[in-house]
Design brief:
single chain; Neuraminidase; 4-stranded antiparallel beta sheet; 24 strands; 3% helix; globular; metal-binding
Length: 307
């Protein structure tokens, strides 16, 4: 049964406003939050204090930044999708290449996340929009394997607890949540539509501890919760027009938003938002790779995309 009429209090968590904040990630190693600003190419980290997100670090990693994922060990930094590949960002802000020239020239990496087996999955997009992009998984050495082709705008991506089901959003042209069966080696099969998302563009997505999906709906000013069979369970109206992505920090639903393209942004446009929900989530799954040395960075960058 839909709970779209349930009253929720949406709070502004950030003092700063971002042009296009995206990809919030709860870091289970130290309890902090990471996110990006696509418009500036910056990777941000902050801590929670007194109901707010207090920025602690920001580093520009490239012209077109995509999703970040933590490494396993505390202090080991992050893998971040950027431009046509991946980089490592250390806690001190040092940026080192992990994989280069994976996406085709003119395309760039967008959303993604890790699976329970330590692979980093990330997809690309292009401007102008055209269905020639891809979804890859990167192993612990940073070597990519193309898992899906014919993608237009790779966005939300979440795995169930077992890692045997992938929920995925290629925003255009169908504006739908899809699901795939995932083999132990990462091969995808049994592609099916979970549901169509009407009234806006489905963007970032996360999964909660009950296996339900929270989706940010760009231009609808909403976050929606769907069951794995596509039933709309709840809709949360936001004070921002362009929510971009979501993360569950325990029972705090964190929503990144954008002000890009809005002629008259409202107070919350571009802010980090938060709303308490009943069912929590888990920290971002980590990538199983290690911080690069000069040799391993060179080796990973030379990896070929499997076809």
């Amino acid at each position: 049964m839909s709970r779209s009429s349930l009253s929720r209090t949406v709070e502004i968590l950030s003092d700063a406003r971002y042009v296009q904040a995206e990809s919030p990630r709860w870091d289970g190693r130290d309890g902090t939050l990471a996110w990006i600003d696509m418009a500036t190419g910056a990777f941000h980290r902050g801590r929670f204090a007194d109901g707010r997100v207090v920025p602690e670090a920001a580093v520009v990693v490239g012209a077109q930044i995509g999703a970040p994922v933590p490494l396993v060990a505390e202090g080991a930094g992050w893998a971040v999708a950027v431009d046509q590949g991946l980089v490592h960002v250390s806690d001190a802000g040092t940026v080192s290449p992990l994989a280069t020239d994976v996406a085709r020239t003119g395309d760039y990496m967008n959303d993604g996340g890790a699976d329970p087996f330590g692979r980093f999955w990330v997809g690309s997009q292009a401007m102008p929009r055209d269905p020639h992009c891809s979804l890859w998984s990167f192993d612990s050495r940073g070597v990519p394997t193309e898992r899906l082709s014919g993608v237009t705008v790779s966005n939300g991506l979440s795995f169930d607890r077992s890692g045997s089901t992938l929920y995925y959003i290629d925003t255009l042209p169908h504006r739908s949540i899809e699901a795939f069966d995932v083999a132990p080696d990462g091969r995808l099969s049994n592609r099916r539509t979970v549901c169509r998302v009407d009234g806006g563009n489905p963007d970032g997505m996360t999964i909660d501890q009950e296996g339900l999906l929270w989706v940010a709906v760009w231009d609808a000013g909403e976050v929606r919760r769907y069951s794995p069979d596509g039933a709309l369970v709840e809709t949360i109206a936001l004070p921002a027009t362009r929510p971009t992505a979501v993360a569950l920090v325990d029972r705090l639903l964190v929503v990144t938003t954008a002000s890009v393209g809005l002629a008259h942004p409202a107070e919350a446009d571009g802010a980090l938002l938060g709303v308490e929900v009943e069912v929590g989530g888990s920290p971002a799954l980590p990538w199983a790779g290690t911080p690069p040395t000069t040799d391993t960075a060179h080796s990973a960058a030379a990896g070929e995309v499997a076809r």
